[in-house]
User: What shape does this take?
Amino acid sequence: MKPVLAVASVALALVLSACASQTVWHKEGAEEEDLRLAQRTCSREAERYGFAFEGARNADDTTAGERRAGSAGGGVYRECMERQGWRRYRDTAPR
Assistant: This one.
């Protein structure tokens, strides 16, 4: 790839990623530290859940096993956050 084309590709990727929507977690009355604590707790819970798919990761079709584990882990994370009263919004939380 020519250097100019490579630089243009990287610049385009950066612009597009800046325009992409973002997930925002919101809980009425919560502080930023409350959010960080909930995210750490739920990340740990989702990581532990990933061990249930260890056999699928070692199977012949590793990509399918990894997709299932990632998707299930994300579901565990979302459910954990929601159990703690957090709600997900695209781009901005309600005021």
Observations:
- DSSP finds four helices and two strands in the chain.
- The longest strand covers residues 23-26.
- The first helix runs from residue 3 to 19.
